[in-house]
Write a structure and sequence with these properties.
Blueprint (H helix, E strand, L loop, with lengths): L2 H13 L9 H9 L6 H4 L19 H20 L8 H8 L8 E4 L10 E4 L8 H10 L6 H8 L13 H10 L1 H18 L8
């Protein structure tokens, strides 16, 4: 296990799932910086129980939380390296921790068999909201979490070219990239690095 991978994986171990009273200090710090230190907001939608995927990367309870910590960590590094500015200090923390909120609603635990990297199986349920990033931004709004324009764009388009034709058109993401190039590219790259390279079973970003 490399150093980057251990950040998210150790979150699960130290959190003592399913006891959510104590969160990993890194993850809790990220939530605090995002203005989400009141865990009840995310607990209300099952954020800390949800997997990061159906059967690929971190398809385990609390996988979404661990994946979000990994993405936030990498997004902070990319923001510094790419030298662009977010609208506020909380932005990369909000985007990293909330970019996949839809996953609290699209995976249901099953007894059909274990996932590749965990003892629990999941099946996919189509969420009521369209898209992946769009749905996550809408759920954030539903929870009363106010996102600035750059944060919303980074979440909506975080699937990059993988989302073209499924969630948005090539023209739509092209226009968004003209306004928020660093934010969208960094978020997409951070998600890919975490899901496809750093996390167990990372054969897909879904």
């Amino acid at each position: 296990m490399n150093n980057f991978e251990s950040i998210g994986i150790e979150c699960i171990k130290r959190a003592g799932f399913p006891d959510k009273r104590i969160l990993d200090p890194i993850g809790y710090f990220y939530l605090e910086k995002a203005g989400l230190s009141d865990r009840r907001i995310l607990e209300s939608i099952g954020y800390f129980e949800a997997p990061a995927s159906k059967g690929h990367h971190l398809a385990v309870p609390m996988g979404l939380y661990a994946h979000s910590v990994n993405v936030t960590h990498r997004l902070l590094k990319l923001t510094e390296a790419m030298e662009f500015n977010w609208s506020r200090e909380a932005s990369p923390y909000l985007v990293g921790m909330l970019h996949d909120l839809v996953k609290t609603r699209c995976y249901k635990q099953t007894v059909e068999g274990p996932a590749k990297d965990g003892p629990v199986g999941y099946r996919y349920i189509q969420p009521a909201y369209p898209g992946h990033g769009i749905a996550s931004a809408l759920i954030a709004a539903e929870l009363g979490i106010q996102l600035n324009e750059d944060e919303r764009a980074a979440i909506v388009y975080h699937m990059g070219l993988y989302g073209v034709g499924k969630e948005y058109t090539n023209e739509e993401i092209g226009k968004a990239l003209e306004v928020f190039p660093g934010q969208i590219i960094a978020t997409h790259s951070a998600d890919l690095m975490a899901a496809r390279i750093e996390e167990p079973g990372g054969a897909s970003t879904k």
